[in-house]
């Protein structure tokens, strides 16, 4: 089902996933010592709907340094493994994709 400007529902879901991932990454960059920003419950309904249900969402977070812990119930970046260069680069890529005027067109 097409909507205005060529966006489809799938494009909207991907854009929302990118925005959510950018929030997670940005929170860790701004608050690296705060565990609440470095830990994500995979069963959280909002996380699952926005990121977990989309192919590559969890893998993206793993590339940013998140690791599955407690039997796969959570994703966590250990404090000593927070890599600001990786997180800043990931954030910049997400931001660029979100702001791309051709998002959803190509």
From TrEMBL:
<dbReference type="InterPro" id="IPR036339">
    <property type="entry name" value="PUB-like_dom_sf"/>
</dbReference>
<feature type="domain" description="PUB">
    <location>
        <begin position="13"/>
        <end position="83"/>
    </location>
</feature>
<dbReference type="Pfam" id="PF09409">
    <property type="entry name" value="PUB"/>
</dbReference>
<protein>
    <recommendedName>
        <fullName>PUB domain-containing protein</fullName>
    </recommendedName>
</protein>
<dbReference type="InterPro" id="IPR018997">
    <property type="entry name" value="PUB_domain"/>
</dbReference>
